[in-house]
Amino acid sequence: MSPWSAAALGDTLANIETPALVLDLDAFDRNLKRMQEALSGCNIRLRAHAKSHKCPEIARRQVALGAVGICCQKVSEAAVFVDAGIADVLVTNQIASLAKARRLASLAHKARMGVLVDDAQQVMWLQQAAADADVSLDVYVEVDVGSGRCGVAPGDEAVALAMQVDRSKPLRFAGLQCYQGAAQHMREPAQRQAAIAQASEWACMTRDAIVAKGVACERITGAGTGTFWHERDSGVFNEIQAGSYIFMDRDYSDNQSAAGDCAFEHALFVQTTVMSQTKSGRAIVDAGLKASSVDSGMPVVWQRPDLTYIKASDEHGVLALTPQAQLSLGDVLWLVPGHCDPTVNLYDELIGIRQGRVASIWPISARGALL
Prior knowledge:
Radius of gyration: 22 Å
Distance between the termini: 19 Å
Structural class: alpha/beta
Largest sheet: 9 strands, mixed
């Protein structure tokens, strides 16, 4: 944690110490409203994914606009949001020990808690923890609909696990998690549409097989920022888990758009300063690997096509300049990070900008919540 804040309310951009994580509040507000408008009248709930922002203030704004609650990936992350007053939290992940299941169950005294399973042992841990804490937990069976990560196969495996959950009081079988994560960054629109059509078919078949056994399947949840309109229109999904839509990153902007796609704006940036310029055609900024995640590729310099971010080391970023580029020591630039989620996790605070000045400073309270 830094010993001081990078900014104070009312500061101009030039006064923000760098590297800093900044949020264009006007673009952010438009992204929030655009998602709610896209789901309005569709009988589809938004359960916003908080792993993208890890910030209770943002979660509260999402809920105020109509989100039913949030998703988290870790129990410790969920605890931060429950303590901040978020009343409905789904951990879209598996619980890997009885100790973690007990921590999750303790949160159910203050909020409605949900969690995923893809193994009978997880069900037993959750049942024991919930019974000991005298709480009920919503349990979703995760079905692998194409991500190739967690989840049981569609059909019989998912049905058997759903039946086990339904028998395991005080657990409550809440439905199916059917997230096609691999589709989110398929570049061509037809690829994304085909992937979600297949995911929807598997989800529908699995739901119908569970219902045929006499077990209600209330919720089919999943989807992400890159495909949610396909899940919305599928007639199968009734809850959307998009997260990155509030920020958008360089990787999402690499997706090709089609008519009917829902477009969001870049709102999240890493503000950086030119700290060295001793070589012709090159400049060094103070935002490197510890300031912007490069797992999805390098950031781009916002609205500066004459500058290319070509290399990152721990504390430095190398820019290549076109012959026409004008840049000076101390110049301030904005970078669009390649991947917003792990970039946010590098910072203690999010600095909101409106009309060129610092209008808010929000703590990223769930930063580093890995347990």
